[in-house]
Amino acid sequence: FALLDLIEANPKSSLQNIILGCVLDLSENSKCLHFIMTWQGQKQQQLTHLLCELCRDEEREIHVSRTEKGVIHDHSKPLMGVLQQSVQITPLARFELSRSVLDLIDNMRSKIYGFFCKLGFSELPGLHEEDSVTLCIIENFLDFKMGEMWQEIVTELDMEGVKLVAPDGEAVDTILRATEERGLAVAATQNYILEQYNKQDLQFEKAFYDD
């Protein structure tokens, strides 16, 4: 609990990333998950809400394209921030890391995804409306990141003048198209969630005035 308290108490601190990694390692023990899920922060928030809030903070920090409600705006680059986009893709040396891989190291989103892989993505306690929207992105984090990496691979091959054989070219096109289609599908799901919350609010309001 003390580690989670530290994460909550140190917003936008490099400590958050380190401590989150420690807690994620501890959660490899299945018995630990029960205790983690019973944690409550200073504002009675639960871990699920804290993780979603951390994800939103990270995305605001790196200027990921989102709508006012947190919905994916750029379907072809659903995870990419302004800085990552500004780094020019160049042919890399054998052991040099690409900008997509460096992004995994630089922020907490991969660790947050790791947590939810253990906790699950449905029927989670403590989620707010904005958390449900954010969770859609977290759930698809790995697929989106793989799409980024394939985009980099294709760009590097083009720069080096490598022409793919027809079957490989078709496979790559399918992967890139699937990534963008997934971005569109996730955005549609997010808008549906917002619509359901809005309907629920209207029903509560109507019931209040009817009483």
UniProtKB/TrEMBL annotation:
InterPro entries: CFA69, CFA69_ARM_dom. Residues 1-153 form the Cilia- and flagella-associated protein 69 ARM repeats domain. GO terms for biological process: positive regulation of flagellated sperm motility. One of its GO terms (cellular component) is non-motile cilium. Pfam families: CFA69_ARM_rpt. PANTHER family: CILIA- AND FLAGELLA-ASSOCIATED PROTEIN 69. This is Cilia- and flagella-associated protein 69 ARM repeats domain-containing protein.
